[in-house]
Amino acid sequence: MSMTPIALAASTSAPTSSDTLPRGASGFPSPADDYREAPLDLHHHLVRRPASTFFMHLEGDDHHHAGLYHGDLLVVDRAISPRPGHWLVAAIDGELSVLHLERREAQLYLAPSRPDLATLPFEADDDRLWGVICYAIHALPAMGEEPAEPSCLR
Amino acid sequence: MFALIDCNNFYAACERLFEPRLEGVPVGVLSNNDGCVIARSEKFKALDIPMGIPTHKIDPALRRRVVLKSSNYTLYGDLSARVQQVLARQVPTLEPYSIDECFLDLRGMQEDWHALGARLVRSVVREVGLPVSIGIAPTRTLAKLANKQAKAQPTRPQVCVWQSADAPDLTAHLNRLSPRDVWGVGERLNARLAGMGVLTAAALRETPDSELRRRFSVVLARTATELNGHPCLSMSDLETPRRSILCSRSFGRPLRDHAALAAALRHHCQRAGEKLRRDAMQASAIGVYLRTNPYHAGTFRHACEWTALPFPSADTQQLNRAAQRLLARLWQPAAYQKLGVMLTELTPRQQSQTTLFDGTDPARQEALMHAWDTIRARYGRQALTLGPQPVDASWQMNSAYRSACYTTRWDELPRARAR
After folding, report:
1. Chain A residues within 8 A of B97 when measuring between CB atoms
2. Which of A2, A32, B373, B416 is most exposed by smallest CB count within 10 Å?
3. What is the ipTM of this complex?
4. Rounded Cα distance, A144 and B245, in Å
5. Is the pLDDT of residue A154 over 60?
């Protein structure tokens, strides 16, 4: 089967910045060129391992006490080994679910925030584990709004 | 040593990754346009629904017990690239063989091969979430056979290692194996081999090299050499060179309008041009075909015409101009169901230095197509098209049961429920 070649970087990667810089109108390189560094790339900061990193949205507000809100963008890395205190994505009842991993005495548990749900014992190498959440990106009210006219109040 | 690593029931596994409810459920994946079943999960195979069965012919009682998915090549392609990325990190050389298989060239590595195989399998399962099996052996031909053996194992990880060509379990396996199950030996060669008493893969590798060269071909002699544990086939021996390119698709509903057909044809020319340039080829002739639905009332119409291009080209605009002229000649009022564009007489691309007699400058055309491919690769196929192409054009695929593009579109990300 023939397929269009696919870039090995995760398809969600941001375009990289160019290494070359435009020269000034005089034709001379800017004296600042030697000090120029690549701009900060948030994608590369958040996604350390593109092959094993997936994005998801959180559905539901039950974890808001932990700062996880409905609609947050979750950065999930499957390569991370889960440890107590981590937030995990696990397949529970046929559904991708977000739970907290806790240790009580010597046993690990998937701890739900919803009071009506039971705590689930968790084994090393548990088949239900999907991935470990490393970031939750939460949008604030100004998200997506146009920049204001540069004048007043500043 | 070489390894062949293969994703088990790849399309069904991709679907299951983001929909855990499909675990243990029979899943079938449908062809372009939802026409027939092209991939099956283990549970689906167990229901004896054959590969290739037209979707409407599946027994309604079974239909209710299975989940059918439209094929989602965007998702499969992304996950395939991730699998390769995980493997490439751990071995010296990786050669993709298809969307769900790749060869690893392990020469130069000193390893416990079982441990390496198990580690590779586990890394893909863990990091990408897809089950894979691996065969490791002294040649690609043997690695392919070893992979089949690995797949038959009931225990995980599915790893089969043949340390050398005279490993006793390998010899026993080849004694039971028909030559037709060896890579590159087709039905026809198998019949001829049977005629001279070569009934097993073991017999094939014991046949003298000179006899295979004399009565068959160098390639079959090399296959036998590979069965004896000496690598001599390269990837390029194994691929049939591309002699032609075909881009066609059935329409979601019949199209009558010349303008709508022209838009579909532009789309196919773009795809064909991209395939040509990716393989560094140029085409000398182009054909267009059109047909109505053979199962519908009314006169069946199938029309096809070819034309030679003024000069060999890989330029989307040139291809489209020639194809549109053919379409204008072919078109008559009818309800068309399928349209395709074909390119043939492919030759390796050569850069001509002189301005062509039609006034175009090949270097400028080359630069234009390079920019074109770069823009479409970076910003998506919809970002730059020849003429307008509505996203939901009716000539595009029927894919009623397509899963989301979970890994490539911001608005189709999976959702994980807070519990």
Report:
1. none
2. A32
3. 0.77
4. 44
5. no
